[in-house]
Protein 1
Amino acid sequence: MRRINGLAAICRAVEGVAAAPSVAGNLVRHHRLVQAALSTTTNNGSLSRSNWLSCNRTAAGQSTSAAAHAVGGVILFSVAASAIGVEAHAKEPVQSEFRPKDVVLYQYEACPFCNKVKAFLDYYDIPYKVVEVNPLSKKEIKWSDYKKVPILMVDGEQMVDSSDIIDKLAKKIHPDRAVGSVADNEEKKWRGWVDNHLVHMLSPNIYRNTSEALESFDYITSHGNFSFAERIAAKYAGAAAMYFVSKKLKKKYNITDERASLYEAAETWVDALDGRDFLGGTKPNLADLAVYGVLRPIRYLKSGRDMVEQTRIGDWYARMEAAAGPSSRIQA
Ligand SMILES: N[C@@H](CCC(=O)N[C@@H](CS)C(=O)NCC(=O)O)C(=O)O
């Protein structure tokens, strides 16, 4: 029998969660239900139950992920909101020599890390194709040794890990950019905050209760690469699993009130802006793009709507939507 740490690791990708060691009766019972639900959904027989539930393995070879990881790594994506009423903040098309001819993003539509990369590509107006990865079979990235998304292929060069991808691209775009300045340090600090703090606020919020978990999975499954059968099963089983996982995550990250923590993070970010339009001043910097990217998947879910209603982040978010502008995604 799979241990609950497999279940907890469902959203490891999103949360960087180490597998939880304990087995709680309820969770195990629930996990069985989820397994049962998922095992009924293999539509062609080639996707075994363990594939469904175990889409990742730890170094020790333990199975670590599960449907909802698969699915749960996939937080959600934003519907691009219109920038009506927002002052004009434009994209910053690449001016340097760096003009990649062929950029392909392997992603889950709703993954916050993938959305971070997309926010960057959109803002710099770099055209990219998207290959939506099936989070259960991951057959689209079988060719790669790296088993997570995002993977970005830039003129044949494989780039992995959202922050590394952005560092590499930023270097190509601004090869002469000075490092070590106050602005540069500030940008680094807040990019770190996104990866180490902000992303951990997401899952506990979007899977906070059954209705929010279902809203999230409805979105995830309708925008991801799922077969019809997978979609139906993943929605209910994934939502149920992630509901429990989010409780574990709360504990792991010492979150008592997930909404309060999300609001606090939003306020912390607005304080960091210190009256500026963007952390980067009059233009977004990489930290602005990172915060915007990871929040995009939740912005139009209940948690994101609440966050915008209850905190001061809305104006900055609207400026970011205007700055990132329409997606530079092109047909694959
Ligand atoms: N540190 C990585 C984290 C990437 C990550 O964890 N991605 C998740 C999706 S949100 C993933 O692919 N998890 C593995 C899986 O789904 O099995 C980054 O910033 O790109």
Note: Residues 13-14, 55-56, 65, 69-70, 73, 108, 111, 113, 135, 148-150, 161-163 surround glutathione (CB under 6 Å).
Protein 2
Amino acid sequence: MENKHSSLGESHLDRFFYPLWLRIWHWLNAGLFLLLIASGVSMHFSSLEKPLIPFEAASLLHNVSGILLTINYAWFVVANFVSGNYRQYIPVFKNIFARLFLQARYYLYGMFRGEDHPFHISRKRKFNPLQQLAYVVVVYYFIPFVIGSGILLFFPELAPENFLGFSGITPVAIFHISIGYMLTFFMVVHVYLATHGETIWENFHGMITGYHSGHIETHPQSKDESSKEGKP
Ligand code: HEM
């Protein structure tokens, strides 16, 4: 793919960060999340007389979307491993607090003053430190937790009969809903922060075409690499 950066001597593959399998997983996941949130909120909050979505339909939609999300997630775990994309999710602990601070400072202060991103996308590291932390927690903890608790709600006979004095299904339901809230919060912040590329659409364009169109770091000794070690 020719683009305005080709003159810098990069190959178009240098800009290819999101393979097709990952984009399919991601957009299916995003769509299913929206359906799960809509049907979950409807079942939880609306009255039986005036439902947002009729209860039976919301329940069916929630169950079918949950099953599809589980299959899609299993596919992500396998493809993430086989493709090597899992390496992007291995936390780098060196100077982690300094690097997290730099990124948080940028989101809370620097970006409103037009400062440059402290970390640029590179082949070695496509996520900034906060993104990496959030993605690891969401993808490897919250999604499996919400799936696991969803399976227990789907097959209540599998839930413990008694948990800390409650009927076993009650704590499972509270846990499922709490993780659901946290995932919803993640999604809102994730979409908002995704608008903070070099242009509003840059990151969305990347997740649709596979190619990152903004600045990438190709030189290992660059400012970006040194700030990755916590030295701005
Ligand atoms: C409408 C909803 C969503 C939109 C518009 C959206 C947008 C994006 C964009 C633009 C990117 C590429 C830039 C980046 O890495 O930040 C991205 C990556 C990512 N998103 Fe989303 N997202 C949505 C929902 C979700 C949900 C619900 C999850 C998980 C619960 C999720 C998890 C991820 C992960 C893990 C990546 C990095 C994938 C990789 O490169 O390995 N997204 N998203």
Note: The domain at 12-228 is CATH 1.20.950.20 (Fumarate Reductase Cytochrome B subunit).
